[in-house]
Amino acid sequence: MNQTNQTPQITCHHADALQFMPVYGLSPDLIIADPPFNINHVYLDINDNLPPIKYLTWTEEWITMAVSMLKQSGNLLICMDDKYVSDIDMICRSSKLHRQNWIIWHYGFGQSGKLDTRKKFTKSKMHILRYTKNKHKYYFDAPSVAVKSFRQLKYNDKRADNRGKCPDDVFIMPRIAGTHKERIKGVSTQIPINLLKIWINAMCPPDGLVFDPFSGSGNVLLAAKSIGRNSVGCEISNMRYSIIHNRINAAVSHNNTAAEYYQV
Description:
There is one protein chain. This protein is of the alpha/beta class. Helices cover 31% and strands 18% of the residues. The protein contains 8 helices and 9 strands. It has a 9-stranded mixed beta sheet with strand order 1-2-9-8-3-4-6-5-7, sandwiched between helices. Strand 3 (30-33), helix 2 (52-69) and strand 4 form a beta-alpha-beta unit. The chain starts with a strand and ends with a helix. The model is unreliable at 257-264 (pLDDT under 50).
């Protein structure tokens, strides 16, 4: 767990999550985990094509560690592809976690290949499973992420809360494709910072702690910092840790919040 990059609100460690979580002594309010999906995605330094049993065993290990760290009032978000999402839901529910939401990020994008070669509907989503330790007592701040409702905008319904409504569990936001200027070179998967900010505002109290065990691009850490939350992450990849390190230093040296410096 050497090579630590730290500022007052944001820290990333060059470490394997399974080695890091048991010893660091964190008690996060919110864990956002976006692990490898085991779909044979091409990474330079990570095997994303493990035998299913090995992958699910590894998944159960890190989930067990994450649950032990999480505050009693905390939230755990797990991002996942179609292939293993049902297995992971069973692991979490067997761990006596309570599923509060099955969130969908609908990113909508074009398809490759000719239309008449397609045998499936076009994949256009990511699953985000949300769990808590306690079934009824957990942190969630709906007013902080409220949006205008149809009752307000279309029907002028006086029964509507004038502050708006809690967002739906389907978030429609474009993904960061390889041709987009926001794409971080060397990182093929990124969740948009503006989407992460909604989740963090709703599920982590001001001055709370966000933990990301698979930090990847560093977007979770930077999004948390931009809205006044402390953040800690770890990243096993040498290349991606270097990218995160440089992004954090760039944001700090420009004396800006992360979102001001990285509008993604």
